[in-house]
Amino acid sequence: MNTKPDRQTGQDFLVQLVRSFVTGNTTWGVLRLVILGALALALVLVAVTIPALWRYLIAPFFALILAFLAGVRYIQDIYELPSLTYALRYLVASFFGFLYPYLSISGGKKNLKKGEVNLLDVIGGPGIVFVQPGNAVLFEGQCGPDTIYTSGTHFVPRFETLQPIALEDQYGELTGLSATTRDGFDVRVGRTRFRFRLISDPHARTLQNPYSYTEAAIYDMVYNRTVGEEGLSDWGSGVAGDIRRVISNYINRHTLDQLTAPSETKGDPRGDITKELYSEAVRNNLRRRGTELLSIDIGNFEIPNKEVEQQRLDTWQVKWKGNARIARSFGEAKRLAQQEIGRAEAQAEMLISIMHALSDVNLRGGTTQSVRDMVLVRTAQLLDAMGQNLPPDDKPPVNNEPGKLDQK
Asked: Does the model's pTM come out above 0.85?
């Protein structure tokens, strides 16, 4: 009869039992406290019964106190805690299973007051975390990611840290974005607003679970963040950096007029940038961060150098002034042409009127003076009629000197 598997199972059980007693949390911590308390009480009762044993208990007692204080000082030193109280609380919570720290997660961030030192934030577990709806938290152990939890109250085991995650739609802004155009001018882009979120599982999204997610997207979001001068950046800063890079590259590839005078160049810079942000290449870059871009509103393009702006304004003024002069000259030429046509028509009408007057006069019976008078009367009548139809500026000056017509 083979009893080796049973013996191996029993040994594994004993090993697991000892490990849980030494490193276990919650109930195991209370059990350790009860056992140590019972042991201390037993030693005290024995010492009371046998007074000679007190001298032998002093050294172990002070050794235990010094070891505990040394552990507290060590924790304060390696985690740079402001006081021994925080280190003492952490050691008590880890060993005895009470005085656990609490931490709330909302908006994809740890809710910490200004100047607050929370052991779950500085060191990690053990502790209790409250995850608000629309959020998740990734537990990281010593060897890598462990578990992902959504909304609710969860216990953080010992040696595990927290990575908060926002499942709701996120909003970001870009300010102070500037770049140089292809023709060497500095251009500043106004406030740019965008909306993004964690890549979700469309098949898992329901009314009961509106904040679906994929574990791969969470891992990409947490572990594909960029590192800058100030250290590890957050999720929104990384997405903003990708968008900033696309806008800057677009400005570098185009001239100033293509950006600030699209009506003249027949272009649409904001529409082109938006299309590029939704292109496959940019979407793949955002997927590496576990992100999908929902919408973006690109700000206006500004020229920081006022002299350049004034020079462009003067150039546009010269162009429009030239167009205005051309239009005015064309109208003046048409006016002169109409005047010449009017004069020619008046002369023709005068000649025709004189011819009609001469045809009505009996040249045989009339004298030369009567013919001359008839021509002068018809001419005067025709000039008077023409003067009444002329515009005020074109009317000839009125001759008030008497006798001039008679002399003619």
From this structure: no
